[in-house]
Amino acid sequence: MGIGALAGIIASLCGVGGGVVMVPAFVILLGLAQKNAVAASLAVIIPTALVTTIQNAKNGLLAGQWKLVIFTALASTLLAWFGSGLLITLRNDTLTRVFGLVLLVFGARMLWQGRA
Question: Which side of the chain, N or C, has fewer Cβ within a 10 Å radius?
Answer without folding.
Answer: C
